[in-house]
Request: fold
Amino acid sequence: MKLNFSKVCLFWGGMDAFYVIRFIWLNIEQGLIPFADDIVNFNQLYSEYGGGGWILLMFVLSMMLNMSIVVSAILLIISWSKIRFLVFLQIPFRVLLIVPSISVIPWLLKQFHVNSIVFIIILLVFSESTKFLSFMLTKNIKK
Reply:
């Protein structure tokens, strides 16, 4: 079974666009400037927790993932033919930082007041597996 590349890209691009819009909305709702206030807040947290390479590494990975999601949303929506590389590259970082590709999952979990870590991890793995398999099952050509 082969899936239509453009439709798969449009779906996942929509999920990434939803993530970006929700990220910006939540920041603005809290009176924060997206990305800029993240850096300022990180500087405060970094000194509060005594610094350390792991804290810096996780922050840098988080910022890089967020920026790559913005880029991938655009590239997926326009169905760039070489987007698979970026999609597959993001998957381990999404799992590490618990950012599901099915971007409505965190919103739904909040709406249903679900806070079971096991359930959240199962949904995260389901989300990333679905994305990986959908791109593995797409036709190699863009229509």
About this structure: The chain is about 75% helix and 0% strand. The chain has a mean pLDDT of 92. Residues 105 and 136 are 22 Å apart (CA to CA).
